[in-house]
C-alpha cells in the first residue's frame, strides 16, 4: 500500500538556495551561476503570485509560469529555463517540499534541430565598436585584455580564466591555454583543449602594455600568476562573464539605448544584472560571432576548428551563423567557370 509523504513548509527562495548548494558540490561555478540566474525568474513569479510555500505548488501553477516566462524570451531560451526548473522541482520532491511527481508537470517546448543549434551572437561590427571604445577609454586593463582575447582568439571563458602570465609568449606572439584541474583551472576538453593560439601584433601590444603597466602583481591560491588578475588574485569566471555582459550593453560604450530605456533607471545597469539588457551578449555569443566572422572571411573551417578547439561538425551545427545564401556566394568564387 502506497503512502503519501508529509510535506514540510519551505519558501521558494530557501528551496532554491538549498538546490544551488547541492549543485555546487558536483557542478562548475558557471553551471551554478546559470541555474541561479534561470531560477531567479521563478522566484520573482512566485513572489508576484503570492506563493510563499512550495507545498502549495500545482501543475497548473507551473503551466501558468511557463506562459508568463514565455512572453519575454524565445523558445530555445524558454526550453533551457523550463528544463532547469524541472531539475529543481525533482530536487524539491526529494526534500519533501512539493507533491510527489510534480516534476512531470514541468513541460518544455518542443524545438527543431535548427532552432536548438542556433542562438544569438555578437556581430562583427558591434565587436569592433566595443574594442575601439575600450581601446580608447579602458586601454590595457584586465577587462580590455579579456574582451580582446574573447573576440580575437575565440577562446572559451574558462580557458581565458585559466591563463597564467607564463602562458603568453610575447616574442613568439602566441598564447598557450593549459589544463590544470589540480589547481582549479581545468579546460573543457581537458588535455585536448591545450593548443598554441597565434596572436596579432596589435593584440600582443595590448597584452604587453597590460602586463607591464596595469596588471596587478598577484598570485592565486595555488601560487600561480594569473594573466587576468584583479587586486584579489584570479577573478572568478562569473566576473569575466559580467565584464562581457556590461561592455556589450550599447550604453556602456556611449551608444544610445535601442530599447528606449533610461540608463539612469535601467535595471540592467545594476552590476549584478547586466544580462537583463536585451542587447547584452554572453561570452558564448562573442565566441559564436568570432567564429562566424572568420568563416565569412573564407577562413578554412579546419583552421577555425583548431584555433577554437571545436570540431568542424560542432562548428557547423552550433556556431556558424551564415545564411545559406551567404554560403552560396562564398562558394561561387570556386565555381564561376562551371
Describe the structure in your own words.
This protein is mainly α and 338 residues long. The protein folds into two domains: 12-113, Tyrosine recombinase, N-terminal domain (DNA polymerase, domain 1, Orthogonal Bundle), CATH 1.10.150.130; 124-283, Intergrase catalytic core (hpI Integrase, Chain A), CATH 1.10.443.10. 50% of the residues lie in helices and 2% in strands. The chain has helices spanning 12-24, 29-49, 59-69, 75-94, 113-117, 124-137, 142-153, 157-162, 201-214, 237-247, 283-296, 301-308, 312-319, 324-335; strands at 168-169, 174-175, 197-198. A three-stranded antiparallel β-sheet has the order 1-2-3, with no helix packed on it. Helix 1 runs antiparallel to helix 2 and helix 6 runs antiparallel to helix 7 (142-153). The termini are far apart.
The arrangement of helices and strands along the chain is HHHHHHHHEEEHHHHHH
Gross geometry: globular
Query: Whole-number average pLDDT?
Result: 89
Q: What structural class is derived from the secondary structure elements?
A: mainly alpha
Kindly identify the CATH topology of the largest domain: hpI Integrase, Chain A
CATH superfamily of the largest domain: Intergrase catalytic core
- Number of helical stretches of at least 4 residues: 14
Q: Tell me the major beta sheet.
A: 3 strands, antiparallel
The termini sit apart by 76 Å
- The percentage of residues in β strands lies in under 5%
Low-pLDDT regions = none
The radius of gyration over CA amounts to: 23 Å
In total, how many domains does the architecture comprise? Answer: 2
CATH architecture of the largest domain: Orthogonal Bundle
**Total strand segments:** 3
Helix percent reads 40-55%
CATH class label of the largest domain:
Mainly Alpha
State the strand order across the main sheet. Answer: 1-2-3
Amino acid at each position: 500500500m502506497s503512502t503519501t509523504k508529509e510535506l514540510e513548509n519551505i519558501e521558494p527562495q530557501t528551496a532554491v538556495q538549498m538546490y544551488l548548494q547541492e549543485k555546487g558540490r558536483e557542478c562548475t561555478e558557471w553551471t551554478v551561476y546559470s541555474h541561479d540566474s534561470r531560477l531567479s525568474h521563478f522566484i520573482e513569479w512566485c513572489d508576484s503570485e503570492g506563493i510563499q510555500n512550495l507545498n502549495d505548488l500545482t501543475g497548473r501553477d507551473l503551466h501558468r509560469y511557463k506562459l508568463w516566462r514565455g512572453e519575454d524570451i524565445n523558445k530555445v531560451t524558454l526550453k533551457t529555463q523550463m528544463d532547469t526548473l524541472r531539475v529543481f522541482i525533482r530536487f524539491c520532491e526529494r526534500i519533501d517540499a512539493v507533491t510527489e511527481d510534480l516534476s512531470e508537470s514541468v513541460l518544455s517546448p518542443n524545438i527543431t534541430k535548427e532552432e536548438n543549434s542556433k542562438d544569438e551572437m555578437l556581430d562583427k561590427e558591434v565587436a569592433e565598436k566595443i574594442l575601439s571604445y575600450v581601446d580608447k577609454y579602458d586601454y590595457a586593463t584586465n577587462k580590455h585584455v579579456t574582451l580582446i582575447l574573447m573576440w580575437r582568439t575565440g577562446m572559451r571563458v574558462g580557458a581565458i580564466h585559466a591563463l597564467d602570465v607564463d602562458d603568453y609568449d610575447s616574442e613568439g606572439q602566441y598564447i598557450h591555454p593549459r589544463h590544470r584541474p589540480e589547481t582549479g583551472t581545468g579546460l573543457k576538453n581537458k588535455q585536448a583543449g591545450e593548443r598554441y593560439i597565434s596572436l596579432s601584433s596589435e593584440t600582443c601590444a595590448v597584452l604587453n602594455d597590460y602586463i607591464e603597466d596595469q596588471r596587478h602583481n598577484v598570485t592565486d591560491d595555488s601560487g600561480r600568476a594569473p594573466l587576468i588578475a584583479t587586486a584579489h588574485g584570479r577573478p572568478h569566471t562569473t566576473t569575466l562573464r559580467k565584464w562581457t555582459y556590461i561592455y556589450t550593453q550599447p550604453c556602456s560604450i556611449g551608444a544610445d539605448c535601442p530599447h528606449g530605456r533610461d540608463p539612469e533607471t535601467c535595471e540592467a545597469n545594476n552590476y549584478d544584472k547586466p544580462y537583463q539588457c536585451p542587447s547584452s551578449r554572453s561570452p558564448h555569443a562573442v565566441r559564436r560571432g568570432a567564429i562566424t566572422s572568420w568563416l565569412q572571411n573564407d577562413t578554412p573551417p579546419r583552421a577555425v576548428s583548431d584555433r577554437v578547439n571545436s570540431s568542424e561538425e560542432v562548428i557547423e551545427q552550433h556556431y556558424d551563423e551564415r545564411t545559406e545564401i551567404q554560403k552560396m556566394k562564398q562558394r561561387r568564387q570556386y565555381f564561376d567557370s562551371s
